[in-house]
Amino acid sequence: MASISRIGKYTVVRELGQGAHSTIQLIRRMEDAREYALKIVEIDGKDDQKFLEQVQHEMRVASMLDHPNLIKLLCLEQEKDWRFRVKKVHVLIEYVNGKTLDQLPAMAMSKLVDKFLQISAGLAHMHRRGVFHADLKPNNIMMTKAGAIKILDFGLAWIKGEPKERVQGTPEYMAPETARAKVVNERSDIYNFGATMYRLTTWKLPPSVFGGLSSAVVGKSSFKSLYEEVCKVAPTVPAELGQLIDQCMKYDPNERPERMSEITARLQDVQELVGEPEEET
């Protein structure tokens, strides 16, 4: 993609990242010097229509949400050719000055529990609005330099009551029922969150829901034999937190906590044990 110095009323500061069919630029609004992220999606033909539909879906999901721990998508603009076909999409996004959780070093337990509480608050808001993230994992969660959490990427999010067009995910973070039967709900998000907490407390990947080179979903007994409890992998993790993570990652969704509010309450109990984190500067 050619270098761009200006887009409408915005000055391009630098490139933040690239995907297969998109580029994200850091831009600055000229009138007040406020910074934003701009996602630019190229639509080159019929095969790229799915990328247009995905950003439209992300925008619609974001418009249903309003929470400090969820990334804000502010507006979507389309560029069309002379035949009125969409050729390019611009998505204006809240700029988050920070890194995703998979890019950060290990944190003190008090700080990590604080981040888990922020994630649970963001997910609880989504669930109250009838939206399920369906792809929560460390590289879809950013932490600002001030320590605030922002959950990203609503591309696979499912709105309750709507048909499921795509059900995908990362094998180590995907709930078994999602992989097996395309089930996405509060308890599948709870599994995703449990897998995320497992990774960030033990520094090990949770077991994949797919067996080896096969695309078949592992059964309950196989999964149980593969899963190592938090207390065995990371003995320094508080027992109450380890037990919560283990429960969130139960193969049977009925054995997991039913609501994010229950997880939040239990994380608050853990926070009382480990203490409040030091203020971040």
Care to describe what's here?
It is a single chain. This protein has 281 residues and is of the alpha+beta class. The chain folds into two domains: 7-94, 2-Layer Sandwich (Phosphorylase Kinase, domain 1); 98-274, Transferase(Phosphotransferase), domain 1 (Orthogonal Bundle). It has eight helices and eleven strands. It has helices spanning 49-63, 109-128, 176-181, 186-202, 220-226, 230-233, 239-248, 260-274, and strands at 6-7, 10-18, 22-29, 35-42, 73-80, 86-94, 98-100, 131-132, 141-144, 149-151, 158-159. Strand 1 and strand 2 (10-18) form a beta hairpin. The longest helix is centred in the middle third of the chain and has 20 residues, at 109-128. Keywords: ATP-binding, Kinase, Nucleotide-binding, Serine/threonine-protein kinase, Transferase. GO terms for molecular function: ATP binding; protein serine/threonine kinase activity.
Topology:
Elements: E1 6-7, E2 10-18, E3 22-29, E4 35-42, H1 49-63, E5 73-80, E6 86-94, E7 98-100, H2 109-128, E8 131-132, E9 141-144, E10 149-151, E11 158-159, H3 176-181, H4 186-202, H5 220-226, H6 230-233, H7 239-248, H8 260-274
Helix pairs in contact: 2-4, 2-8, 4-7
Would you count the extended β strands for me?
11
What is the CATH H-level superfamily of the largest domain? Transferase(Phosphotransferase) domain 1
Shape: globular
Strand content: 15-25%
Main sheet attributes: strand count, strand direction, barrel closure: 6 strands, antiparallel
The share of residues in helices is 25-40%
User: What's the CATH C level of the largest domain?
Assistant: Mainly Alpha
SSE order, as H and E?
Answer: EEEEHEEEHEEEEHHHHHH
The count of domains is 2
What separation lies between the terminal Cα atoms?
A: 37 Å
Organism: Telmatocola sphagniphila
GO molecular function, one term: ATP binding
Protein name: Serine/threonine protein kinase
Domain Protein kinase: 10-274
